[in-house]
Each structure stands twice: as C-alpha cells, then as structure tokens.
Amino acid sequence: MRRTALIGGGLLLIVTAGWWFLFMSGKSSDINDFDEQRAIAETEQLTLQAQRDSLEALAAKEGEFRVGLNELRTSIPVSPDGASLIETLNESALRADVELLSLSPQLPGPSVVPDLFEISIDMTFEGPYFRVLPLLLELENLPRLLRVDVISISANTLEDGTNLLSVSLTATAFSLTDLDGSLVEAAA
Prior knowledge:
The protein is of the alpha+beta class. It folds into 2 domains: 60 residues; 110 residues, Ribosomal protein S6/Translation elongation factor EF1B (Alpha-Beta Plaits, 2-Layer Sandwich), CATH 3.30.70. Helix content is 55%, strand content 24%. Strands 1, 2, 3, 4 and 5 form a 5-stranded antiparallel beta sheet that branches.
C-alpha cells in the first residue's frame, strides 16, 4: 500500500510537471511578452503626456510670444533707412552730451539670420563716464534693433583731472530688404 501511494504520488508529480511544461510554459512567455508591451506602452504614454504638457505651456504663453514677435517686427524696418539710423544715433549722442567722433554705417549685406539684411556700424565717441554710460544704455533701448558686436573702452585723464572714456564699438542693425528693396529670398 505504501508502495502504491508512492507510485501514485510520483505519477501525479510527473503528470503535473508534464502539464506545466506543455500548457503553462508557453503561457508564461506570452505573459512576459505582454508585460514588455505594457511597459513600452506606459513609456510612450509618459512621453506623450510630457509633450502634451509642454504644448499646453506653450499655448498658455502664445500671447506673450505674439507680443514679442510684434515688438521684433517694429524694431526691424522693412528698408535699411540709413539716414534715420544715423539721425537716431546722432540724437542719442547729443542727448547724452557725448562727443561723437565717428559714425560709419556700411551698406546692407546678407545676414547669418535668415530673412534679414545686416548693416554694420562703426562708432567712436568720447566723454565722461557718467555721460557715456547713459548713451550705452540708450543704444540698448533704441526703438530699432541694434546688436553691439564689439566694444572697446579706454580711459584718459585730462590735465584738470577729468576722466574721459573713449569708446569704439561695432554694432549691427537689421532690415528686411537691401538698398534696392530686394527681399532676402530674391537675393538668395
């Protein structure tokens, strides 16, 4: 009887193991495949959620971007208008009570920025520190976009002890057309 119970238990164990290998081992690989697909789908869901959040944040700032774009459009004139540019820079120097020694704008040329022409400007001026500083700040706040590329400042002391700053700078103004009114696309 004991022997029969052992043989019966052994057969039950063999049948159970056989059943497991025949039916369940294939299912566990299917379950593993499903778990991998689920993990990939969860990762994609997190990525899409992050993209959606980013797009919603951009949409919330759309008004600010439009205001900034309009400010940029008004600060870059369609034509180079060199006379107006020279007049604006001269007036800025006069308001700051700084001696403008030289002002040399160049002809408009193609820009590294798409759809723009660049007008290189070399300026040299001199004056006391507290007059030069407001001029530099005014150049930053001109209604026309002006990028200062290079600036060189040196100090000189006069016989009466006054310190004068000599400033040489190279700046770039922008326009949407060149002198003959050609748009960037036509020049390219």
